[in-house]
Design brief:
Elements lengths: L1 H18 L9 H11 L1 H21 L5 E11 L7 E11 L7 H14 L1
Antiparallel strand pairs: 1-2
Helix pairs in contact: 3-4
Length: 117
């Protein structure tokens, strides 16, 4: 009985060696590269580093972009002798750095070149 089971198992194992290659599917080069990209942890780590550096570039040059801000303030004074009085202020500002010497432009170009490498 044990000999029969081992022969049956061995025959299944040998037959699977011939059947499994026939189940293989041909993959084009783009599909192969996608599989490598998805299953290679080293490539995924490199991709994450590049993505993190792109965020670094964006945050470093963000100070050079025009900014807009709105600020509001309110105060309320209650006085029984006089009518209630309120104080309201609203201010808005738009600011931009003027790059006279070209330092900001050069820094942005340097960061973008580092990112593109």
């Amino acid at each position: 009985m044990i000999k029969k089971k081992s022969v049956l198992f061995l025959s299944l194992l040998i037959s699977s060696l011939f059947v499994l290659p026939s189940l293989a599917v041909e993959v084009d080069s783009e599909g192969f590269l996608n599989l490598v990209r998805e299953n290679n942890p080293t490539l995924q780590a490199s991709l994450n580093r590049v993505e993190a550096f792109s965020h670094t570039v964006k945050s470093n040059v963000a100070t050079q972009r025009p900014t807009a801000g709105v600020r509001g303030n309110t105060g309320w004074y209650s006085d029984s002798d006089r009518a209630r009085q309120g104080s309201y202020t609203l201010s808005a500002a738009v600011s931009s750095i003027i790059d006279v010497s070209g330092v900001y432009t050069a820094r942005e170009r340097e960061l973008l070149l580092q990112y593109n490498v």
